[in-house]
Amino acid sequence: MADTTVRRLRLLARLLFLLSILSVLFLGTSTVLAADEEDSGEDDADSSEDSEDDQEDADLLDEDQEAEDAVPLAEVPAEVEQKPEKKPLFGRYGRWLKRAEKMAMEELDLWGASSTVPQGFLVGLAGWGTMRPFQRFDQDRKLVDILPILSFDDPFHDEGKFFKFDFNISGKGSALLASFMYGITDHLTVGVSTNFMVVEIKVDPIFTPGTVDYIGVSTLDEFYVVLEALGRPRPKTRYKTDGVDCGDTVLNLTWNYFRTDYFSTAVTGNVFLPTSHRADPNSNLTFGLGPDIDTGYGAWGVGMNVPLDFRLPKPVKWVSFSITGEGAYFFRSTRKSPDFLPIDTDVRDWIEAQGVDVDFFQDLTDMGSTYYYTPGPWAAVSGTLGVGPVSVTYRHGWGWEASYDSDSEGFKKMIDFIGLVGNGDDGKLIFSVSLPLTPIYLPALAQFRFEYQTDGRNTLVYRDIYGAGIGFFIPLAPPERYKLSKRSGK
User: What number of other Cβ atoms are within 10 A of residue 460's Cβ?
Assistant: First the structure.
């Protein structure tokens, strides 16, 4: 599949457009700390301090106000005298926050997906997202049920079906994201991210008998009796997260090695840690045994991300374009095997004698206690148009088949028959809006996100994919060049 289930749940795993706007906020909190440090070492010379603060306020006047101040007051008519500009809300904090905005935009000029966190600053992100499983794109790019309807040709040739079995899957899920990034230098950022899932999925099987009632099977319970005689346990019907399920933890390092006014690029290396929830083997959706799913890759892996950012010149510098290539490769992991039942050979032989194809029902008791699983590697390319705080992205990914290695020859045949594993691809549109919170004097930015899967092959389809996130900034160890002078205001 082009993406495993975890990629659908990881709605806020990377807010690429975020840093181009959020960098405005970095210096606001740092300068407050710088000022507080200086204040702690001063005496109680209140009158002198008040005079200096008043001078700072005067420096914030507009150019036209400064020009008028040069005219003797006696020559200025009383009716046109201008009142001094009001102090920013929250005093020194508000003043420094606004000065920091100007410095960040004009001097640092961080823009595009290749932006990194300035040296000495920590960025903390928290996000939330929701989605629901909808259908699946099959090999021919058609929307079909998530699990294929089990249907067997009529061995009695009555121009009907032997029976139909519809898993009838439904459910919903949400995800919480936590991410931290720290600027080692202005062009080198290290980070870690993880996510937590809340999932509820149910299976309400629909059994439609055909000529199978010729052999005494006409209800779902009677079908289950035959199914167990053929070595398959009854599928579980409910899965609900007990608290939260962990997702994968990803370590990353970003190097913004080239940046100009109109072009910037970077490279990000990722290491995937196998911290995610692994589906109960006896309720695993991939095996058709129930609704439980992995909430991550569940294996060690490495990945890379390379964005290329372009920006238009003035007066439309707020329009940018990004092209990003990414991919990942994973290593083999050990998983616990499902508990399949022994086959009642008398029942199997009798059903086969009626002309029913029972090749799907292989003896799987020879699997052993474990099998080996390797998530399929994947690659993707995306293009983004950013207009101020709004961005639109189209992403297309390609995935290669995951590997299931077992001593049982029938195990792989069963997985192929169910049809949830294979090479595939998918495309989706991503809409994002980022809103800086400095107008309400918060050193943070909020982002809202919506995704829509447009097409695909051999991949699950989700709908109602919404996400929201907020980022805050902590000046842990900013260098002197990022601390504004308290007296000069520069």
Answer: 24
CA distances from 295 to 7, 242, 465 (A): 9, 13, 16
How far apart (Å, rounded) are the C-alpha atoms in residues 401 and 424?
Answer: 8
The label of the residue with tokens 């695993």 reads 284
Say how far apart CA 363 and CA 393 lie, in whole Å.
47
From residue 382, alpha-carbon distances to 310, 397, 461 in Å are 14, 8, 19
Total domains in the chain come to 1
Residue appearing with tokens 């040069």 = 70
Residue 190: predicted pLDDT = 98
Cβ atoms 361, 231 nearer than 8 A: yes
Query: Does residue 226 sit in helix, strand or coil?
Result: helix
- In this predicted structure, what is the pLDDT of residue 183? 94
Using CA atoms, how far apart are residues 291 and 133, in angstroms rounded to an integer? Answer: 11
Is the residue at 55 inside a domain?
no
Backbone angles phi, psi at 463, to 5 degrees: -125, 170
How many helices (H) and strands (E) the chain has is answered by 9, 21
Residue 421 class from Cβ within 10 Å (0-12 exposed, 13-18 middle, 19+ buried)?
A: middle
Q: Answer whether residue 22 is part of any domain.
A: yes
Tokens (6 digits) for 91: 């005093």
* Measured torsion, CA atoms of residues 457, 128, 280, 227, in degrees rounded to the nearest 10: -50
Task: State the Cα–Cα distance between residues 246 and 297, nearest whole angstrom.
Answer: 11
Task: Give 3-state DSSP helix, strand, coil % of the chain, rounded to 5.
Answer: 25, 40, 35
Segments forming the whole domain that contains residue 323: 5-32+102-482
330, 311 Cβ separation under 8 angstroms: no
Per-residue pLDDT tens over the stretch 269-325: 999 999 999 999 999 988 889 999 999 999 999 999 999 999 999 899 999 999 999
Cβ–Cβ < 8 Å for 415, 404: yes
* CATH number where 411 lies: 2.40.160.40
